[in-house]
Amino acid sequence: MLRSLAGAICSLFFMTSIAHAEGSIDQAISDIVAPIVNPIVSTVFYSVPIFGTDFPLIVGWLVLAATIFTIYFGFVQFRGFKHSIELVRGDYLDPKDAGEVTPFQALATALSGTVGLGNIAGVGVAVYIGGPGATFWMILAGLLGMASKFTECILGVRYRNEYADGTVSGGPMYYLSKGLSEDGRARLGKFLAIFFSICCIGGALGGGNMFQANQSYAQISGIFPFFEGRGWLFGLIMAALVGVVIIGGIKSIARVTEKVVPAMAVIYVGAALIIILINFTAIPDAISAIFTGAFAPTAVAGGIVGALIQGFKRAAFSNEAGIGSASIAHSAVQTKHPVTEGYVALLEPFIDTVVICTMTSLVIIITGSWVPGDGVTGIALTSKAFEANFAGFGYVLAFAAVLFAFSTMISWSYYGLKAWTYMFGEGKSKEVTFKLIFCVFVVIGASMSLGPVIDFSDAMIFAMGIANIIGLYLLMPKVKALLKDYHEKLSSGEIRKVKELAAAE
Amino acid sequence: MPYNYIVGFDGTDQSRRAVDYAAAQAEKSGAELHLVFVIEWSPYSFHTAAELAERKGRRVQELKRAEEIVLPLAEELKARGVVSHAVARHGNAVEVLCSLAKEKETAQIIIGRTGDTALTQRLLGGLAISLAQASPVPLTIVP
Description:
The structure holds 2 protein chains of 2 kinds.
Chain A: H1 2-22, H2 25-44, E1 47-50, E2 53-56, H3 57-72, H4 76-79, H5 81-89, H6 103-114, H7 117-130, H8 133-158, E3 161-162, E4 168-169, H9 172-182, H10 186-223, H11 231-246, H12 251-278, H13 283-295, H14 303-319, H15 325-330, H16 338-345, H17 347-366, H18 378-387, H19 393-424, H20 428-447, H21 450-492, H22 498-504
Antiparallel strand pairs in A: 1-2, 3-4
Helix pairs in contact in A: 1-11, 2-21, 3-8, 3-14, 3-21, 5-16, 6-16, 6-17, 6-19, 7-14, 7-17, 7-18, 8-9, 8-13, 8-14, 8-16, 8-17, 8-21, 9-10, 9-21, 10-11, 10-19, 10-20, 10-21, 11-19, 11-20, 12-17, 12-19, 17-18, 18-19, 19-20
Chain B: E1 4-8, H1 13-29, E2 32-40, H2 49-79, E3 84-91, H3 93-103, E4 107-112, H4 118-134, E5 139-142
């Protein structure tokens, strides 16, 4: 397997060296990919003019769904929040299940797929284009998105496949096909599952890969000028590292990331908190900037709608609620009732968007780093904001960004792989083929300019939401029935906290 | 209600000494032996999605491997006339041994003192001090 990886990397080297002879490699790669990417982007982001601003229908589609699930499940994200914390803490963990996947582990893994550059770079883009008001819409979308995550992760566990060798596969492709065939909609279910899988592969290669590679490269080239104009070289290094983990199965690198990524997340949030506390006098102004920016923005293209679109887009891109990706990671959990994982999963958009994204945004606003139209956007804007208080934090941020990107890539390689094997069947050679393609896209992502990469990433990830949400609408009565059953079992005492169980015995 | 000796065993010589000591005591007192193999595991660790998907299968394999180590020993002791049970569990060694001790009305924990490998260090090395502080029952550390 390692040999085939080495072969692929060598041939890439060969390709790129030919391109190099004819001019900039990065330009060459961009030229090849752009004509394929652009039509996809314009289809997914079909926009209608609202109050003079183009509103992409897909963003409305996701937020509308989140709102409908919120109402349909009776504001479960607020009423069930305490229960979610109890489940993650392990209050309901049966000691006999020691060694199985716990709710905490499933949540942490799903989070490692979503907490990433979206929280650092994505928020930078949202605030730059949408102004401080984008934060308000981002938080709102995050809160609503909790209900979407709740719905999709319950279905993920309910319709997962458990194989004889003890492996578990779950996610939208399984609940779409199995769940809908129960209602006599087998053909629709199959169609949606395949549509979802195609988009999921695209999303894995786009947002889960190219965007990550691209932004890590931007960070590294800022620190090491050697890499400037050599995105392909950085891409090759990154691809080799990713390949070693996902193809070579070398656990040591994954182990290191497992230790370092949560530590970086703590450092990031800690630093953000310190900056917010140091500048606590600026908090009221920042909050007022967020609210006025949300409802009466100035200096923002498109006014309210402009701020709203940016906020909604970034929230959706960052926490992926309604997209269906997290459902794949959550499906492996050990639970006696699918509903528990819904409660656990709803914490994901909360931590990702309502806590972490909001912190990034507050730091940008509080430090006054947002200057409309000055061109400092994305991760550069976030970096500037942190540097305002911690000189040299840019380096920490760069390191964190690359690590987050790496762990997000590892997660998405798995999501993409599951969609791939759903379509083409399980099997070693099929899996390696996908993983090799994944590695090639790391190089492409690092070589292209940000604009086309971000557009393609958003497009594919949002397209997953089209099939997924149609399925969620059709399947939500089943979720409601499961929820009713769960609450009956909770109140009858059939499902109890471990402590209560022990006391009863 | 028989007296219970809960003995940490991980296949190392040190843990074997603890077992031999416990068996010798049990022969005299008629106590029952519980040979416990703890597979280090935390409910709060962090894994990749691919690892989570394989977890259920891995868990079964880990338990099987642990039982392959403890079961023959239990059989050997049974042949000597000592009532012995083989136990394999996931978790933190201190917590697992203490919770087993709590399950029995009368018990004591017996462990070996030091280990050589990193794993045994975790299982039995640091374990002695932690158990001394946390054990709900008398604790014997066999040098």
